[in-house]
Amino acid sequence: MTADLTVFQETMLPAVEQAMQAVLARARCEDHDDLYHMLAYHMGWEGEGAGPKARGKRIRPLLLLLTTAAAGGNWHRAVPAAAAVELLHNFSLIHDDIEDRGETRRGRPTVWARWGLPLALNSGDALFTLAHIAMLELHPPVDAETTLIAARILHQTALHLTQGQHMDIAFEHRDLVTVDEYWQMVEGKTAALIAACTDLGALLGGADDTHRRAYREFGRMLGLAFQAWDDYLGIWGDAALTGKSTTGDLLERKKTLPILYGLQQGSAFARAWEQGHPHTPAEVPALAAALETDGARAYTEAVAASLTTQALEALDEAAPQGDAGAALRSLAHHLLRREH
Amino acid sequence: MTADLTVFQETMLPAVEQAMQAVLARARCEDHDDLYHMLAYHMGWEGEGAGPKARGKRIRPLLLLLTTAAAGGNWHRAVPAAAAVELLHNFSLIHDDIEDRGETRRGRPTVWARWGLPLALNSGDALFTLAHIAMLELHPPVDAETTLIAARILHQTALHLTQGQHMDIAFEHRDLVTVDEYWQMVEGKTAALIAACTDLGALLGGADDTHRRAYREFGRMLGLAFQAWDDYLGIWGDAALTGKSTTGDLLERKKTLPILYGLQQGSAFARAWEQGHPHTPAEVPALAAALETDGARAYTEAVAASLTTQALEALDEAAPQGDAGAALRSLAHHLLRREH
After folding, report:
1. Which of A99, A129, A151 sits opposite B118 (nearest CB)?
2. What domain range includes position B309?
3. Interface test with A, best of B93, B128, B184 (most A CBs within 10 A)
4. Judging by DSSP bridges, how do beta strands A108-109 and B104-105 pair with one another?
5. Residue B200 at interface with chain A, using a CB cutoff of 8 Å
6. Within a domain: residue A336?
């Protein structure tokens, strides 16, 4: 990362962390503090393994605040919105882990794995509520009308998230999922929240409608491109190809973009997959090669590259200003130019 | 119920139902409508057994709108808030049913029993979001400041609900729960939402702070009294005593008010309970008698009567006006003077 981006990160993210902590303190009761401690554990603040690694990268609030500053606004006023999007993201992780039966996240036991499903589900509901509470902290100094618009964006995003998550869960039980359906799912599950970050950032930075639309489109395309690269790396990243990684998408039989593309070709890869392969890590490289023969590698790379271009073009249209603008471009490049 | 109350019910509730339907239509996608249909099923609008019985009594929106009218406001403007509280209540039912493994509700399979846990959990999240979306429909014509206050009340209530639910779940795994802890749990799980209904109703009806506080206290006491009577009937209601009802609280070993009171006395009832009785419906009447000997019946009845009095006194202080005021009193009496 560039020096500029690091400076913003080190200034903005502690402010967001502090705002989230202040909001979560609302969940404390005198004698019955267990619910709060579950949430503080999930946020990476408490318990075994607490620390920066357990917190994740806090990319979403950073995007939001950089956008506010790059649009010419005072990012300090947008901190409640940045806290809200990060809390919303974290709420969705608690529930996703239950839905997927995921037992570890960021190297630690998930909330349900530690406290059991009923309390974990309920703690996710609490964090969802706290995200909404955080957003309304915008007012004052942000005016009531703008705060309502921001709250509506958060709600609409949360609804879109559940629509994407519904599709994702439903896909697991289906043999056939089209590439079109896949993109609909990703729009909700990944792109909606990133688009909300840049949209909220632009709104609170005082961008006009044209620039706000461009910022929103930048976030959306960034989310889609990020997912396409992630899917690419899930098969042709080093660890995935050796089959040693727990994220080897072929071994986990995930319905990612290259796999769905491959299945639509109906050739050797599709036949092997339909017979339940790969069963072992040793089978992974041959299946990845079959997928490449089907054109899935070239297709995924081309799609990811095209989405990346569209994201950066939208960012150009948004015309981010000053040091924050430079840092925002730097963050976009950092997120999109990953090793592959 | 009195004729007045019935007239209000027949005017107000269809407007709420329509508002909820309009909000839920936001969850529809062109091709992927499954999530919407899960919610429409849960709301009692669709699927086997759909109809008034599957919808529940819609007491909460009725309380809210009657309060608005009794405080001198135009109840039509408060319909979005009434829709929001009913959607919030219904969201909590979807998640409670997962947490308690409840397989039927209002005579039909629960959402998770029908669609499986992951999709059901996610559909609850969608309904939670839709409740928030409904609330912001207040503006316009309600001004932005008041709409923000209403949204904050909804969020605070949702947080309180999760705190009560956390305690309720945690109690299941504990041998000892005090009567004080029980009341803390009921404050969150039952009273908070009823208090929010009368508070929101008064806010949107234009009540001054003093009357709004009285309306809120009326709702809170109504919720507590309702729960106390419910606990009473769960043991000394006819069906509960014969042990034939599925809601016999002794047989289900629920930690309700009279049972917790009895356990604190440490006599014959407590010893039998600690040994795991009752095992069968036939044992229920003797245990209920032992509980009565401990004074639990008299205690619960006295507490319920006292809370009822406090609820009605708070309502007097709120001084509800006109036909809606009379209907509100009538509803309170109807809810509190149940057969016992």
Report:
1. A99
2. 3-336
3. B128
4. unpaired
5. no
6. no
Is residue A161 within 8 A of residue A192, CB to CB? The reply is yes
Q: What DSSP character marks residue A47?
A: S
Region B126-139 average pLDDT: 98
Mean pLDDT of chain A: 93
Of B32, B99, B156, the CB nearest to A118: B99
Q: Which residues of chain A neighbour B167 with C-beta distances below 8 Å? A: 32
Length of chain B in terms of residues written: 340
Question: How many whole angstroms separate alpha carbon A334 and alpha carbon B58?
Answer: 52
B94-111 average pLDDT score: 95
Is A337 inside any structural domain?
Answer: no
Q: What is the pLDDT of residues B239-270, one digit of tens each?
A: 777 666 656 899 988 999 999 999 999 999 99
The minimal CB distance from B129 to the residues A118, A148, A162 is found for A162
Query: Do you find a cis peptide bond into A141, omega within 30 degrees of 0?
Result: yes
The alpha carbon dihedral of A158, A146, A67, A61 has a sign of negative
Instruction: With residue A109 as reference, give the H or E element that holds it.
Output: strand A108-109
Q: Which residues of B214-244 are buried (b: 16+ CB within 10 A; e: fewer)?
A: bbbbbbbbbbbbbbbbbbbbbbbbeebbebe
| Residue B94 near residue B122, CB atoms below 8 Å | no
Q: Is the bond preceding A278 in cis, omega lying within 30 degrees of 0?
A: yes
pTM confidence score: 0.95
Q: Which residues on B lie below 8 Å from A147 (Cβ)? A: 144, 148
Structural domains in chain B (count): 1
In a domain, A95, yes or no: yes
**What percentage of residues in chain B have a pLDDT greater than 70?**
96
Instruction: Please give the helix or strand (H or E) that residue B181 lies within, else none.
Output: helix B179-186
Q: What is the CATH number of the domain that holds B115?
A: 1.10.600.10
Min Cα separation B206/chain A (Å):
19
For B:79-98, CB contacts with A below 8 A are 95, 98
Q: Is A339 among the domain residues?
A: no
Q: What span, in angstroms and rounded, lies between the C-alpha atoms of B248 and B231?
A: 10
Q: What percent of chain A has pLDDT over 70?
A: 96
Pick from A29, A147, A165: which is nearest to B148 by CB?
Answer: A147
Determine, for residues B35 and A151 on separate chains, whether the beta-carbon distance falls below 8 Å: no
Answer yes or no: do B122 and A151 touch at CB < 8 A: no
**Interface membership of A178 toward B (CB under 8 Å):** no
Residue pair B110/B102 in contact by the 8 Å Cβ criterion: yes
Strand residues in B24-91 grouped as ranges (E): none
Confidence class for position B32, pLDDT limits 50, 70, 90:
confident
Cβ-in-10-Å burial (0-12, 13-18, 19+) of A219 comes to buried
Find the mean pLDDT for residues A139-145: 97
**pLDDT of the residue at B218:** 98
Q: Which residues of A touch B118 (CB under 8 A)?
A: 98-100, 169
* Res A340 pLDDT > 50: no
What is the interface size between A and B, counted as CB pairs within 8 Å?
A: 142
Which residues make Cβ contacts (< 8 Å) with residue A87, sequence separation at least 6? A20, A23, A127, A130, A131, A134
**Residue B129, token pair as written in the block:** 């979001």
Helices (H), chain A: 3-24, 34-42, 52-55, 59-70, 79-100, 111-115, 117-136, 144-172, 179-186, 192-205, 209-236, 238-242, 257-265, 268-274, 284-293, 296-318, 322-336
Distance, in angstroms, between B32 CA and closest chain A CA? Answer: 8
Contact A148 B130 (CB under 8 A): no
ipTM summary value: 0.95
Q: What is the dihedral of CA A21, A22, A23, A28, to 10 degrees?
A: 90
Residue A27 near residue B159 (C-beta atoms within 8 A): yes
Taking 70 as the threshold, does the pLDDT of residue A170 lie above it? Answer: yes
